[in-house]
Amino acid sequence: MGKTALVTGASRGIGRAIARRLAADGTLVAVHYGSNEAAARQTVHLIEQDGGRAFPIRAELGVAGDVDTLFTGLEAGLLTRTGQARLDILVNNAAITADSIETITPQAFDRLIAINTKAPLFIIQRALPLLNDGGRIVNLSTAATRIATPEQPYAMSKAAIEALSRSLAQAVGERGITVNAVAPGPTATDMNPWMLDNPEVQQMVGSGNAIPRAGQPTDIADVVAFLAGEAGRRVTGQTIDASGGCFLG
Ligand code: NDP
């Protein structure tokens, strides 16, 4: 039987590119989204157009019952299509950004942590019993954990993801499960609307990189696919910087 994957936040941006890439490798992909149903359906449509298999699951993260809602949809979707609720690949990709330390409110900080940090932890907790031995967990971080940026609260929320990935890798290694974080630099998605469809801005953003161009979602999807595939079997507990050498020093 082919592999199965859950990609959170797969309706748009990097998550969509990851879902498409994994599906192109023959994986049945659960395309999770929060509210943008049209975008999630478009991801599924693009995958099916390319001959792949996928289904959408709606679950707003960061609210009470979020993980229950997600796994009810995931398990039902997998059962219908494969006869069992087993997973091979989990990609924790959904996230939001937030204001800087000067202006962020306690409420906004709680929401940031609930979506970027708490949700991935409890998604992993629920996924582990479903995950086959030899499975893969990939968590999206950011190069902002390594580089000083004005986005301190966001960087905090993602630094925790890197710590989680490292210690969890140790705990599940005996099952042949790998756990890694992938850290993109600035990438042209809705998260950075000022970059989208603006080659001049993208060139300016990319000029600080060793590879002097801005990141595209497919750049990240290829790295995730490597970690999620057989070739990545010996890589675990790592944060893979996929920023094109953003401010190497
Ligand atoms: P986008 O803003 O383009 O897409 C965000 C995705 O997450 C959407 O699918 C969205 O669903 C989902 N999502 C957001 N909030 C929630 C929520 N509360 N509940 C459920 N789903 C939610 O993000 P990117 O593609 O840019 O980012 C993907 C990952 O890469 C993130 O982890 C981000 O931190 C990381 N990253 C991105 C960088 C960049 O420059 N773009 C740089 C470094 C890291 P819906 O469509 O339904 O709203």
What does this 3D model show about the protein?
With 249 residues, the protein is α/β, with parallel strands linked by helices. Helix 1 packs parallel to helix 2 (37-49) and helix 3 (66-82) runs parallel beside helix 4. The longest helix is centred in the middle third of the chain and has 22 residues, at 106-127. The radius of gyration is 17 Å and the shape is globular. The protein has 7 helices and 7 strands. Strand 5, helix 5 (152-172) and strand 6 (178-184) form a beta-alpha-beta unit. Strands 3-2-1-4-5-6-7 form a 7-stranded parallel sheet, sandwiched between helices. The protein has a single domain (4-242), classed as NAD(P)-binding Rossmann-like Domain (Rossmann fold, 3-Layer(aba) Sandwich), CATH 3.40.50. The protein has helices at residues 13-24, 37-49, 66-82, 106-127, 152-172, 199-206, 217-228, and strands at 4-7, 28-33, 53-58, 87-92, 131-140, 178-184, 239-242. The structure holds NADPH dihydro-nicotinamide-adenine-dinucleotide phosphate.
Question: What's the layout of helices and strands?
Answer:
Layout: E1 4-7, H1 13-24, E2 28-33, H2 37-49, E3 53-58, H3 66-82, E4 87-92, H4 106-127, E5 131-140, H5 152-172, E6 178-184, H6 199-206, H7 217-228, E7 239-242
Parallel strand pairs: 1-2, 1-4, 2-3, 4-5, 5-6, 6-7
Helix pairs in contact: 1-2, 1-7, 3-4, 4-5
Bound molecules: NADPH dihydro-nicotinamide-adenine-dinucleotide phosphate.
Compose a concise summary of this entry.
With 249 residues, the chain is an alpha/beta fold. Helices cover 42% and strands 17% of the residues.
